[in-house]
Amino acid sequence: MDLSLDERRAGPGSDGRPFWLSPASYWLPAHLPVSAWLTHGPFASWLMDVLRPRRIVELGTHYGYSCFVFAEAIKRLGLDASVDAVDSWEGDDHAGHYGPEVFDYVRSVVESDYPAIVRLVRGWFSQARPVFEDASVNLLHIDGRHGYDDASADYTDWNSTVRAGGVILFHDIAERDSGFGVWRLWEELAEPGRSFAFHHGHGLGVLAVGEIACEPLRELFSADEDTAARIRADYERLGGTVLRQAWLESLPEDAERAWAEVRRRAVHEDELEAAIAALRTSTSWRVTAPLRRVGKLRPPRP
Ligand SMILES: C[S@@+](CC[C@H](N)C(=O)[O-])C[C@H]1O[C@@H](n2cnc3c(N)ncnc32)[C@H](O)[C@@H]1O
Fold it and tell me: Vertex 168, ends 60 and 141: CA angle to 5°?
């Protein structure tokens, strides 16, 4: 039976929803900069909710999307926790090379919203590694260069920073284009009962370190095929709402006002779809058509 998210939330269970969803799964991110990680925000918020990490380290921050998702969850959940975001802020062949404006943007968001939560560590991963003690981290996010050798080196150098009960996230495990090799590293590391793989959003691998910290994670890692498929479908769909939101926010200002009204009124997905259809026939949609065409010519998100 194909139940909607709302029906499942109200379905049987100790608190009326399946173990892989919590209110955090439904949060919309506070910041939506350009990122190939956008659709993983809902799962990352859930993970923060169940894992309750005290120390998060991220290798590869770029415009800061994933870092801000972790930081926002710390704020909203009231956790006593911090995020160390490590990046050269110079870019690489996959993310593209970029100028100082990217770091300036990330720093401005951190200064305004997460000054006591996020520490920006500007430098190469190898330079930063000695600053972090072994077994001091609860959640490590590996999202630097995506070749097999690079990702393997990042894992080899940094996995000892994670303490038992912690989790390592790997982005891009589903990307098999030339130059991408995280999928191969993931095949080497993923173990039944200790890992979970999402296929959407270029793929996200979730790997347990040592003893599994909590029941929802134990259930996630030991989910049977049907349950795993439902988990993937739910998070792909929730990720889709983040994509839509990012797209709405990329619209020019006049269209954005109209969309704010759409969002205010739309409660259910089908209403949102109807509202989108209505807006598409509106004047502001026609006026902004050339901008959308230009948008399509831009390079894809990294
Ligand atoms: C894919 S982006 C990170 C995306 C980010 N997590 C997000 O949510 O959008 C990869 C980043 O890793 C950085 N990077 C890659 N290799 C690095 C290294 N060895 N040392 C420092 N930074 C590195 C690049 O500068 C780039 O900004």
Answer: 15
